[in-house]
């Protein structure tokens, strides 16, 4: 019996990167997995991968910046698998990497829609179904970028700070429903990492050297098991926590200042 046997999980943004790694970890732990993904090709591919592992899996095209899409995905998951036990809010829609003064209202709105509002809508939609099951587990995604004030990510940093507030509020209030709510701050070799490594020789080696563990994370082998832990009865007395899953990168942090930006401009 796996740690998540007979559990039903919905993972947003599971069509690639960390989301795909978590989906694979969940499937191997025995869960039925709903791949809530905007990209049809990648979403279908991951669902087929999970089915090949022997898992029950379903792809649902989902734009997490749409409340109706999220609500429909959760309802369909419940109809297909007779309930919902686990919600993983991983997806977000990135905006251009530009300085804070160049970030637009539209960029901030897009980021808030795909992170804070997406988590808010999905958590509220999942609540009655988790109550019907006698409890549930929610795992939200935070980021080290917020802690260091990463350059060029002003809107993202703002949104992820709000995710921590939402996570703690839900953990505080929904514990009475036996719903545990936690967050993780992961870094791993997803699609963005591989793109940067291809475009910037030495990027992968430098990234690994910044971490006390001396290597970069694998989505399935390094991130997935921590999410499985938070979704399983192994963490039955853990709620309101934020766990860094980054090889220790949060200890030294990192300098994100772009090359060429003057120290003083006045």
From TrEMBL:
Classification via InterPro entries: NAD(P)-bd_dom_sf, Sc_DH/Rdtase_CS, SDR_fam
Single annotated GO MF: oxidoreductase activity, acting on the CH-OH group of donors, NAD or NADP as acceptor
Pfam family, one: adh_short_C2
Family of this protein: Belongs to the short-chain dehydrogenases/reductases (SDR) family.
Name of the protein in its database record: NAD(P)-dependent dehydrogenase, short-chain alcohol dehydrogenase family
Organism: Pseudomonas borbori
